[in-house]
Amino acid sequence: MNWKLAKTLFIIVFILVNIGLAIAYINKINSSKVFEEEKTTELDFDEENIQILNKLPDVDDVKMQLITGKTKDFESYAKSRSNVKLNHGDETIDVHMEHPIDFSEKEISPLKRYIDKHVYHGKDYQFKSSSKNRVVFEQTYSDYPIMNNSKALIIFKIDKDKRVKMFTQSYMGKVEPSEGANNVEKQVISPKKALDELYYNRYLISGDKVKNVRLGYYSFVREPSVQVLQPNWEVVIEADNETKTYYIEATSNNPKIIEQKE
Which residues are in the Regulatory protein YycH-like domain (predicted)? Predict the structure, then answer.
């Protein structure tokens, strides 16, 4: 073997590899600089061909923090009521209503009045959505919804005669600020910043339409009976005839983004 030639080839390969690494590093730095420069420029969504809501929520004086909640055990509650049956263990109940309610999509208030008066901790829930065969109410904390959470819902079922005769309920009890010295209230980022983050992370692109933006709590730690919930912006986007929902940390200047999986 020609050791001199082998040594020369080794040196050449070593130099080429290092040149390649240096170029990659420089490109990464330049890309990062461009990205940061882009982020310091005020985004005009009209110019980007992205439709957003005419009016976004005002959160100038809103501060929020992590909260913790425990799943309600309905076993004793169900045993004492003949019209209540346990569903999926003891965390969810099916309730047959003694007096059915005629349903109208234009008038949700009769259901809300019923909830406030007859449902377990009914005043803790607010209207979320309705469809052909169901109406959904979400549990709230300090008037903000606990979003996309099967442990904090009331779902009314609408029959073929447009009547509501039963509902399913789950509830999160002992909802309170999480323990920990670092869990202090922080200023909520603006909804515009949340949309900016979606854009810069390529979740929001030209041609997309923002359908809804709301502030609430989203669970990022889910144990069997305990959840830790974080302030989040929920953004619903319509893109190519497909609807996607994203959750953006609401109290971080460098927020994480979670895409809801259907």
Answer: 31-251
pLDDT in tens, 91-135: 999 999 999 999 887 888 999 999 999 999 999 999 999 988 999
Residues 6+ apart with CB under 8 A from 156: 103, 111, 134, 135, 136, 137, 164, 166, 167
Task: From 116, 172, 112, 115, select the one nearest 139 (Cα to Cα).
Answer: 172
Residue 256's closest CA among 187, 201, 214, 178?
A: 201
Q: Can you tell me the distance from the alpha carbon of 74 to that of 93, in angstroms, rounded to the nearest whole number?
A: 7
Please give the Cα distance from 201 to 135 (Å, whole number).
34
Q: Where residue 222 falls among pLDDT bands split at 50, 70, 90?
A: confident
CA-closest candidate to residue 149, choices 236, 238, 227, 65: 227
- Listed by start position, the domains of the chain span 39-64+178-260, 71-174
- What tokens were used for 31? 């890309």
CATH topology of domain 71-174: TATA-Binding Protein (3.30.310)
Q: What are phi and psi of 221, to 5 degrees?
A: -130, 115
CATH level 2 (architecture), domain 39-64+178-260: Beta Barrel (2.40)
- Helix, strand or coil for residue 257? strand
The larger pLDDT score, comparing residue 18 to residue 170, is at 170
Pairing of strands 134-141, 67-71: unpaired
